[in-house]
UniProtKB/TrEMBL annotation, chain A:
Signal peptide residue numbers: none
InterPro entries xref list: Bact_TGase-like, Papain-like_cys_pep_sf, TgpA_N, Transglutaminase-like
The species this protein was found in: Neptunomonas antarctica
Record protein name field: Transglutaminase-like enzyme, putative cysteine protease
Domain Transglutaminase-like as annotated: residue spans: 413-484
GO MF annotations, alphabetized: peptidase activity
Automatic annotation (TrEMBL), chain B:
Claim: ATP-binding is one of the keywords in the record: yes
Keywords of the record: ATP-binding, Nucleotide-binding
Descriptive protein name: MoxR-like ATPase
Domain spans labelled ATPase AAA-3: 35-165
Taxonomic lineage from the root: Bacteria, Pseudomonadati, Pseudomonadota, Gammaproteobacteria, Oceanospirillales
Pfam families documented for this protein: AAA_3 (PF07726), AAA_lid_2 (PF17863)
Family of the protein in this entry: Belongs to the MoxR family.
Entry superkingdom: Bacteria
Organism listed in the record: Neptunomonas antarctica
Record GO terms (molecular function): ATP binding; ATP hydrolysis activity
Domain ChlI/MoxR AAA lid: 229-288
Length: 690, 304
């Protein structure tokens, strides 16, 4: 019977309102995927869905698509998906495949089973969306998507109701029902969020290749960093233990140092990857916490100058930068310490030659200039001063310098005399190396926007910066920021104010709030508030797993895989077993309170002698008559109780109810006191006679 | 009034010996305004019971012996040409009486059997386009031989449904039979029996039966009995809603006979078999019909 029902349910055809709801559901689910899937698929999907919707609303206007038309469409889409999946990097292909499959499924949306498939795929697409975007808005949209999916599912199972009532009423009731279901599941969701262990994926997913498209890289040539100014992507967020940011001039965030120079590019020295303990902490050091966005790179961000040991999982490198153990594919959260002025501990410089290497030839004018300075017998500090003086007097700081060719440094120093931070850093490091001063270029970020609502510093990609460190005997590495010499306002003012008018600044997102806010103060405040909210989201929701890890560790000790599985599956298994038992248990009927006494009597006596239980077909009068024979001591009580029972239960004389309950209590009390020997022993004989 | 009814029971029992329960059921059937079918082998006292009931209730009664060559007009009556008046005049049949004894009803053809149908259900007879009311009260007490007997036309289900109860007398027990043998045929005592009740009193008693209170738990019990008969694997055709209504009706009469003005499950159980037996179709491979019916009572819990 049930099997038959199942079959008929699966093959039950869907009526128009349900189909409409399913198509609308698919539209809602696919909207966030628009930024991921290729344009052609979006257009085709839009056309198909619109056509199906139209054919549902106006069936007479839309003839059925011919069979070969469907075939061509399906084959074409499959081919397109294959091609774009090959070309796509990361998970874009998955999303494309899912959307294409779901949209093609609508072409054969006939039975309830098709509807189930569509609902399942929609759930999957909604979940896949979180691989690409985990912001608060995405989460909110995910909730809305779930409500929509459940609405469609509920409508599918409402059956005939859909036809008789108006579409609007049906969808309203189904929608509110699904919202209620979702609300009811919230506590469970919260519990799972709090305790469900975040198991790292069993296979590595190449997350968001696009993350690598902005941000610093492991080598640098002039022009690389000004490219970053086109992007307002968030690089990282920092909060400070004192809730106060360091002054703008001290917000140098070190990501990496370039010590190797090949005449054109600066790149990282491999041997700087040494784990060191760093200096010991002192009074006045800054403690801060960083939430770094995924970048597909290993480097992290250290406030100059790093000191002490950062939190676990962060490697500290001898050049003062931090590094993660593996490329950042997801947001990472760590804390570290910084000292405001560098304390030189007298360590000598290792591998001095590397910090002094320049190609033998090239840039003759620069060489001449440096030779001239050296002939004058200038000290290191004097040479630096002279160079910075030059910068300050003759140079321009611009986002769009002229292109450099051939002897780039000569050209920069003597003809164009304009550039972005990396041009200055490049020229400074080169020139000082010519002068025999060991240098390296530091790449990182300068600045950050302080959010007063949530008290954190937000550093964006356009705040990427490059500066120089020079080794001065007796002082160690000192920071030289040539940009500060040519344009001190870069250090003291927010970057977005400085370059608001430059066409290159944030060329990738011309309409973003950052560009507009200079004219609208309320927008600026609103943006800060939104970012504060986002920060809390990142910190408390997305970043919760680290806190959870420590919490779980505190409770259960270090977690290994087996332990986690046990912790997870034993309680869940127990709960499931309970639920199944609850659902499958032989359910005693909800006994009327008036009948309870009889049931209790029967149960109690049944424990003394099974034959004394009331059998199913036995009425109360028959039962009490039988008991009277077996329990002569209780004859009168039984008689009284039975009469009252009949009066209350069948004659419905409600005024006797209280008396009846009292009599029941007394009788049950007495029966519970009965021992085996109180029962008439020849009961069995009598029963058989009966 | 109730003691008058009790007298009826006693009077009938003095003729139909050792069958007090059956007699009570038969009386209950009449109090519930139901028609009665008595099924048994020949010579078990069916006709005696029917006769006695008719006599004791003080009803005007007629007896029709059903045979296979009988026509509907033989029961309902028909129009006969009156030569003096040069027109057809209607001659009422034996059915125009307060109590019709339809003896050996299954000996007649289905055509004649169905002629009784309208009369039993509606209390009226339609002949030649004229509808004539039957007297009130109107009862049919039919007797029939078991279907295994030769020369019988079994009553169709629709017709069986018209009878509130089907009773069977069965062989008397040893003591009773000895008394019977010593005493000889009791049938001639019938006319000497006092008439205990008249039709007006009977109507009052019937109204009193209708007013017996039925509480929810009992309604619930009856519904569950009916439902069980429909779901049971042993039963092909379960109890219809009309059958369930009949069950309540009969139970009420039983409750009234037992001196109560409210129904208890015991009443339902008492009348259950006689009301339900002929309304169910039990699977043939099942050893006995009564077993299936008794099974229903045993399996359905009185308390919910």
């Amino acid at each position: 019977m049930s099997v038959l029902k199942g079959v008929s349910q699966k093959s039950a055809s869907l009526d128009t309102p349900v189909k409409t709801a399913l198509i609308v559901m698919l539209l809602v689910i696919c909207v966030p995927q628009l930024v991921i899937i290729p344009l052609w698929l979006a257009i085709i999907a839009g056309c198909i869905l619109a056509w199906i919707l139209l054919s549902l609303i106006r069936p007479e206007r839309c003839p059925n698509m011919p069979r070969w038309g469907r075939g061509v469409l399906v084959a074409g889409v499959i081919l397109g998906v294959l091609m774009s999946a090959v070309a796509a990097q990361g998970l874009g292909g998955l999303s494309t495949l899912l959307v294409a499959a779901a949209v093609l499924k609508t072409l054969e949306l006939k039975t309830r089973r098709d509807g189930w498939v569509l609902v399942l795929v929609a759930c999957f697409i909604a979940a896949v969306g979180f691989l690409f975007n985990q912001s608060m808005l995405a989460a909110l949209y995910g909730l809305i998507s779930l409500v929509v999916i459940f609405t469609a599912l509920i409508m599918m199972h409402q059956g005939d109701q859909n036809g008789s009532l108006g579409f609007r009423i049906v969808i309203k009731s189904a929608g509110s029902k699904s919202a209620v279901i979702l609300l009811q599941s919230m506590p469970l969701m919260l519990i799972l969020f709090l305790i469900f262990p975040r198991i790292s994926p069993l296979w590595s997913v190449q997350l968001q290749h696009s993350a690598a498209k902005t941000g610093l890289s492991d080598s640098m040539s002039p022009g690389d960093i000004s490219q970053l100014a086109r992007s307002d992507d968030v690089a990282f967020r920092v909060s400070f233990s004192t809730d106060r940011p360091p002054p703008p001039a001290a917000r140098y965030w070190r990501a990496m140092t370039y010590s190797v120079f090949d005449g054109r590019r600066w790149s990282m020295g491999k041997d700087t990857l040494i784990r060191t303990a760093g200096n010991t902490l002192q009074q006045g050091d800054i403690e801060y916490q960083v939430i770094a966005e995924p970048s597909a790179h290993v480097w992290l961000f250290a406030l100059d100058y790093s000191v002490g040991a950062p939190s676990q999982g962060v490697l500290s490198v001898s050049d003062g930068s931090y590094r993660a153990g593996s490329p950042l594919l997801e947001r990472i959260n760590y804390h570290a310490y910084a000292e405001v002025t560098r304390r030189y501990n007298g360590e000598p410089l290792n591998e001095r030659s590397r910090y002094l290497f320049v190609p033998e030839t090239g840039n003759p004018k620069s060489r001449a200039l440096v030779n001239q300075w050296r002939k004058k017998g200038m000290t290191s500090e004097e040479i630096i001063d002279a160079l910075f003086m030059r910068f300050n007097q003759h140079f321009y700081y611009t986002l769009s310098p002229q292109r450099l060719t051939d002897d780039r440094i000569d050209q920069f120093l003597f003809s164009t005399q304009e550039g972005f931070c990396e041009h200055f850093a490049n020229a400074t490091a080169y020139t000082l190396r010519l002068a025999g001063i060991p240098t390296r270029i530091v790449a990182g970020y300068l600045g950050g926007e302080w959010n007063p609502y949530e008290k954190y510093l937000l550093v964006r990609q356009y705040e990427a910066h490059a500066w120089v460190e020079a080794w001065v005997e007796g002082k160690g590495w000192i920071r030289l920021d040539p940009t500060a010499a040519v344009a001190p306002e870069r250090v003291t003012q927010p970057f977005d104010l400085l370059f608001a008018d430059a066409p290159e600044f944030m060329a990738d997102s011309p309409l973003s709030a950052i560009n507009l806010q200079h004219n609208l103060t309320w927008l600026s405040a609103g943006r800060l508030r939104y970012e504060a909210l986002n920060y809390s989201w990142h910190r408390w929701v997305l970043g919760y797993h680290q806190e959870q890890n420590s919490l779980l560790e505190e409770w259960f000790g270090r977690l290994n895989f087996i332990k986690m599985l046990l912790l997870l599956f034993i309680p869940v298994g127990c709960v499931l077993a309970l639920v199944i038992w609850w659902l499958l248990r032989a359910r005693p009927h909800s006994v009327s309170p008036l009948d309870k006494a009889a049931v209790t009597m029967s149960d109690t006596l049944g424990r003394l002698a099974p034959a004394l239980q009331r059998v199913h077909g036995e009425t109360i009068s028959q039962y009490s008559r039988r008991l009277k024979e077996v329990l002569p001591g209780l004859r009168e009580e039984l008689e009284e109780w039975h009469t009252l029972y009949q009066r209350v239960r069948y004659a419905q004389i409600l005024s006797d109810e209280a008396v009846y309950y009292k009599s029941s209590r007394q009788l049950v009390y007495k029966i519970k006191r009965l021992e085996k020997h109180d029962i008439d022993t020849d009961m069995d004989v009598r029963r058989s006679v009966r | 009034m109730r003691d008058r009814i009790e007298q009826v029971v006693n009077a009938v029992s003095s003729v139909v010996l050792g069958k007090e329960d059956t007699v009570r059921l038969a009386v209950a059937c009449m109090l519930a305004r139901g028609h009665l079918l008595i099924e048994d082998l020949p010579g078990m006292g069916k006709t005696t019971l029917a006769h006695t009931l008719a006599h004791v209730f003080g009803l005007e009664y007629r007896r029709v012996q059903f045979t296979s060559d009988m026509l509907p007009a033989d029961i309902l009556g028909g129009s006969v040409f009156d030569q003096q008046a040069s027109s057809f005049t209607y001659h009422p049949g034996p059915i125009f009486t307060q109590l019709l004894l339809a003896d050996e009803i299954n000996r007649s053809t289905p055509k004649t059997q169905s002629a009784l149908l309208e009369a039993m259900e509606e209390g009226q007879v339609s002949s030649d386009g004229v509808t004539r009311q039957l007297p009130v009260p109107f009862f049919v007490i039919a007797t029939q031989n078991p279907g295994s007997q030769s020369g019988t036309f079994p009553l169709p289900e629709s017709q069986l449904d018209r009878f509130l109860m089907k009773l069977s007398l069965g062989y008397p027990d040893a003591d009773t039979e000895k008394v019977l043998l010593k005493h000889g045929d009791t049938r001639r005592d019938i006319s000497q029996l006092p008439v205990c009740i008249d039709s007006a009193l009977l109507l009052d008693a019937q109204i009193a039966c209708q007013q017996v209170r039925v509480s929810d738990p009992v309604v619930d019990y009856i519904q569950r009995l009916a439902q069980f008969s429909r779901d049971s694997d042993d039963i092909v055709l379960g109890l219809s809603p009309r059958g369930a209504l009949a069950l309540i009706q009969a139970s009420k009469a039983w409750a009234y006979l037992s001196g109560r003005d409210y129904l208890i499950p015991d009443d339902v159980q008492k009348v259950f078999s006689s009301v339900v037996d002929h309304r169910l179709i039990v699977r043939l491979d099942h050893d006995s019909k009564t077993n299936a019916v008794r099974n229903i009572l045993a399996k359905v819990d009185v308390l919910n």
